[in-house]
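Protein 1 of 2
SEQ + STRUCT:
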Amino acid sequence: MFQYSCLNPISQIGIDRFDENYKKVDDMNAADAILVRSASMHDMELPENLCAVARAGAGYNNIPLDKCAEHGIVVFNTPGANANGVREMVISGMLLAARDIVGGIEWVKDNAEDDNISKTMEKAKKDFAGTELKDKKLGVIGLGAIGVLVSNVARHFGMEIYGVDPYLSVNNALSLSRDVTVLKTYEELYQICDYITVHVPYTSDTEGMLNKEAFDQMKDGVVILNFARDLLVNDKDMSEALKSGKVKRYVTDFPNPEVVKMPNVIATPHLGASTEESEDNCAVMAVEQIREYLENGNIINSVNFPNCNAGVCNTEGRITVAHKNIPKMLTQFTNVFSEVGINIDHMTNKSRGEYSYCVFDIDAASSKELYDKLNAINGVLKVRIVK
């Protein structure tokens, strides 16, 4: 019996994917796995028995990745599960920026008592005139699941699409429309695009990437859209760019005390993935990843350990080891199996940065002795008996 805890409300459609072998508990200290959306885990004590954390969403800055990794806790996210919901918000943001729809709606509300509004509006509407998206150049920074969807749909508006992604995967490249031009550098994109939308994760390398240096390379009157992460944009530099007119509009899904006071900002309250469908998709994916890990020891969509898929175990036993990526670890592991008289039928080992993960399929059931000997090796973070 596995136990799980939810730090935020999780869509019931996802929770229903757990079978009778899973029990929900309120006390996270008793949980083998945790599901979370926005709750911050940085100040939480991590239970010794905790094996996995699944973020029902793409972002994971509310989870202490390194702290989890040092305890052998695998952290998952759900890339692509909310991609369509975010895509629709990005397209909406471009339309709102191109045409002063918000200003027009507010004008109608302000003039609700005008009995002659049908005539008055004909004079007023010139103040809300905008431009069309057709023939404009859209720059997409980050061609992951969301960036690809945005690129592919924007071309149907008659836009020229340019994308940049140093880490473009084969699958995403194959999904990208052939009408999209992939550039090598951000600088090329900055210089030619009328609209720029950012879809990259928040890391130390991407923090504040849209700053004065970047704005100075852009066309005057560029429109910036940020439905990815708040801290990708330097707020101070954005404020100056808006005041000077370098940036015509800033459309963001992340209002904060500074942004909401800036001129020419269109801000929404983090609605990108807030659709019933996105929440359902994220919950289903998160639960399925937890089940695959707890039941089979396989890692899919981890953000702190390498992905590792050894399939379903067809041998007598399976044991997994999360460990530091340091020399001679595999030699020590195989020596332990030899000491206890167990043969390794199949082994999978993957590494990612400072951390590695091993799956051992063996010709006997995993034992407490085997567990203890592996766990005693310096550099081992967590051992799990799967079978």
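Protein 2 of 2
SEQ + STRUCT:
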Amino acid sequence: MMDNLRLICLSVFLVAWTLSGACQQMPEKPNIVLIYVDDLGYGDLGSYGAVQITTPHLDRLAEQGVRFTNGYSTSATCTPSRYALMTGTYPWRRQGTGILPGDAALIVPQDKATIATVLRDAGYKTGVIGKWHLGLGESVDKNWNSAIKPGPLEVGFDYSFIFPATADRVPTVFIENHQVVGLEDDDPIHVSYTEKIGNEPTGRENPELLKMSSSPNHGHDNTIINGIGRIGFMEGGQKARWVDEELSLTFLSKAKIFIEENKSDPFFLFFALTEPHVPRMPATMFKGQSKLGYRGDAIKQMDWTVGEIIGELEKLKLDDNTVVIFTSDNGPVLDDGYVDGAVEQLNGHKPAGALRGGKYSIFEAGTRMPWIVWGKGVEKNKVSEALISQVDLLASLAELVDSVRPKEARDSKAMSKVLLGTADEGREYVIQHAGTLAIRKGDWKYIAPSSGRAYNKLTDIELGNLPEDQLYNLSEDPGETRNLANQYPEIVRELKSLMEKEKND
């Protein structure tokens, strides 16, 4: 009897010891927060050299984490960059991935892996909050007054609280999961991008009703909502329409709720802020804070919002087990459709830093982004020169959580150690995309010939399109002022060959 009791006790002890050892060998998966902002320039943060504006919360993350100097979006505009981030493939490989109108159909494939499905399959609760701009539904013609799908929930997210496209495009409503928030049955929404619908005033016909003037010829002169002319026409949904000043605060509130509700499980939050994209109409407490017009005020609001997210993680004691990634979808633009003080009150601020171009441009300022990583396992106060692209986030996060990069994410490179700052060898080369394609390898950048415009007068941005080869040494000439193509034809041939290989792959 005693021998049997000893045997049982010994067995219980061994099982407990084995389970304890197994638990110790299984590291806790880190939460992941991807903060993706809109139209922020390489020179817009203090940690990247800005002196006319202060960004203390993001500067703190840079001091306590890794700041990349060669981190890229794939494209110089928003929709294609977001497509690459979601799918792990370059957007120029597929037609229909350009800047989408507000009524576009979903362009993210539902039958292929996304960054959200990879993490969900790895045991994560997944959520997207903020700007979407990847289309909704099966077609342009959709009923905004019933379930709107497919959308984020059909491509890997467990929870979604978004606006459909950009803040300057209709419909100006929040969509939670599949439903417009606050919509009333007797006031249905109708949207058109081809003709005026309804009797609501427009910026073109009633400029006296605008509280923010539209820039001429930009197209922001259709239906007036909250005193701001939009792109596209909308009627109905009066009580469902958001107010621009509340956008960021609403998204922040929803993000905090998502973090709180999922604090006991590993979670992935794709937090897509609208700042500093137009129309820039920050909350009242931020107006005038930057002395750089509403664009500067929007950057101050963005920085504060990031600080609030970090504060929430710290309050819930999640900061020791969370990786936060901060970057932007494309480069800066000042006048992108509204007269908001961004040009007149620039006051010596350089949104692109020492780089040339901006949003829409194949020059560096179009795609070289502020990029900061902070949190669990991340090196502290490190400046990384590793070459990395946002298309790599899918494979890198899969590697971080011990998952496998799906084969269809063909352009995504697994570089989790580079992301955390524990390794320095990034990509061999990266493809950049605007009106044409460019390739960067080491210090050299080659831009393919293009018949497109060299300069956008409306935005006052050099687009970088020329009918001949362009070659720049970025270490000696970060402003891309000296075309060396004729002096180094062998380098032109090498980079052109690499680019053609990618295009034909």
